[in-house]
């Protein structure tokens, strides 16, 4: 039996009236993060924090209405309370940052004690996003900043291995978790809470719930930067995260060849759509120097990310070569910036980390919170 389309679901929801407002939940813009996958439907209903107690029947009515649709195997509706929204998005300025809107308020840290939250993202898997996130996080810690690393890659958490961390996080009060720590970075990952070979079959709202818990129910303490390793891709999960995690900006990792860059463009556009500034683009696996003869080969081409960045008005942060030492150290849990801190690769990561920090000090630091796009 075919699963219903998003329009079918929205049509059903548009008949559910919020008794407080006398209008339906769709036209009120309450429906968010609608995900339909293999007959399972998930969505959240946006409410005011003070309404939480009395909106339970509305939530239930939505869930029952969706569950009755033909082809729906399960329906999950959760209530979420966002912060108050402000005016609409600001058009992107050069370098992908929103232009400073007249009267724009200074940044309002959504997570107390955390200065900036940045996403490391890639439009597809296997381009070295997690390796880059780990090396940049450790490099920023080496530069003297207080850094956290949150593994949002709920379907394939690789940060615990790359940071040589295992076991369960401790809790001091039974409610909040204490992040694990290695190489000077505080780390949280779903990988600490589930077995490595347990498949993640969570639906959209559950994924978001887990990430919000790892953001807010973890004792991060004071952090200058929290680096979030996003799951690869530009689908619903990434879009929801980009909307719901209070991101200061995103860094996109791409390999140099054309096909990968087309994906990177999609990634950039995804962040722009939800008004998250793209801070810069990094070209990973940029070139290869043969360790035996010293000859250089551009295995995946070279320079494509720089050209794409210039075309799209996004800053280009730099190149990281394809090198066996980067792979082995990252897979062994001793990132190259730790295992060979004086080497050329560590220097490349450190240079990118400091460019990134400079960018954060710029207009991105004063950006408005992301506008929530109603789907
Ligand atoms: P992603 O997060 O994009 O899926 P990973 O960071 O997990 O990618 O990297 C995929 C594999 O490629 C890993 O084995 C990693 O060690 C390796 N890798 C990443 N970047 C490089 C690089 N610059 N040189 C060599 N190997 C790399």
Could you characterize the architecture of this molecule?
With 375 residues, the chain is an alpha/beta fold. It folds into two domains: 6-85, GMP Synthetase, Chain A, domain 3 (2-Layer Sandwich), CATH 3.30.300.130; 114-366, P-loop containing nucleotide triphosphate hydrolases (Rossmann fold). Helix content is 31%, strand content 20%. The chain contains eleven helices and 15 strands. It has helices spanning 6-13, 56-67, 129-142, 159-162, 204-216, 236-244, 258-273, 304-312, 324-332, 336-339, 344-361, and strands at 17-18, 23-24, 31-37, 40-46, 74-80, 114-121, 147-151, 180-182, 185-189, 223-229, 249-254, 278-284, 288-289, 296-297, 316-320. The strands form four sheets. It has an eight-stranded mixed sheet, with helices on both faces. Strand 13 (288-289) and strand 14 form a beta hairpin. Helix 3 (129-142) crosses helix 11 (344-361) and helix 5 runs parallel beside helix 6 (236-244). The protein is globular. The protein starts with 5 loop residues before the first helix and ends in a 14-residue tail after the last helix. 43% of the residues are buried. Residues 83-109 and 363-375 have low confidence and may be disordered. The structure holds adenosine-5'-diphosphate. Adenosine-5'-diphosphate binds next to helix 3 and helix 9.
């Amino acid at each position: 039996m075919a699963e219903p389309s998003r329009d079918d679901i929205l049509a059903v929801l548009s008949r559910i009236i919020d008794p407080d407002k006398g209008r339906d939940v769709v036209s009120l813009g309450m429906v968010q993060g609608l995900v339909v996958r293999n007959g399972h439907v998930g969505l959240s209903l946006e409410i005011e924090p003070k309404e939480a107690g009395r909106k339970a029947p509305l939530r239930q009515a939505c869930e029952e209405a969706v569950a009755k649709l033909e082809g729906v195997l399960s329906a999950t509706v959760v209530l979420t309370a966002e912060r108050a929204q402000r005016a609409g998005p600001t058009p992107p300025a050069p370098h992908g940052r929103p232009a400073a809107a007249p009267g724009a308020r200074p940044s309002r840290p959504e997570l107390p004690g955390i200065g900036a939250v940045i996403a490391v993202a890639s439009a597809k898997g296997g381009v070295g996003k997690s390796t880059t996130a780990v090396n940049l996080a450790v490099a920023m810690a080496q530069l003297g900043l207080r850094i956290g690393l949150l593994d949002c890659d709920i379907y394939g958490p690789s940060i615990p291995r790359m940071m040589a961390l295992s076991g369960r996080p401790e809790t001091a009060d039974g409610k909040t978790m204490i992040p694990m720590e290695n190489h000077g970075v505080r780390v949280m990952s779903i990988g600490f809470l589930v077995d490595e070979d347990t498949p993640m079959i969570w639906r959209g709202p559950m994924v978001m719930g887990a990430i919000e818990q790892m953001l807010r129910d973890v004792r991060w303490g004071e952090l200058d930067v929290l680096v979030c390793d996003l799951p690869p891709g530009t689908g619903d999960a990434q879009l929801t995260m980009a909307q719901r995690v209070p991101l200061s900006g995103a860094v996109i990792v791409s390999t140099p060849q054309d096909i990968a860059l087309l994906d990177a463009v999609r990634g950039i556009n995804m962040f722009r759509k939800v008004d998250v500034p793209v801070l810069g683009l990094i070209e990973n696996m940029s070139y290869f120097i043969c360790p035996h003869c010293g000859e250089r080969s551009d295995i995946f081409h070279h320079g494509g990310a720089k050209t794409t960045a210039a075309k799209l008005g996004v800053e280009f942060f730099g190149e990281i070569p394809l090198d066996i030492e980067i792979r082995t150290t990252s897979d062994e849990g001793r990132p190259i910036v730790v295992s060979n801190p004086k080497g050329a690769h560590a220097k490349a990561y450190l240079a990118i980390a400091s460019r990134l920090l400079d960018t954060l000090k710029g207009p991105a630091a004063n950006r408005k919170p992301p506008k929530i796009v109603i789907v």
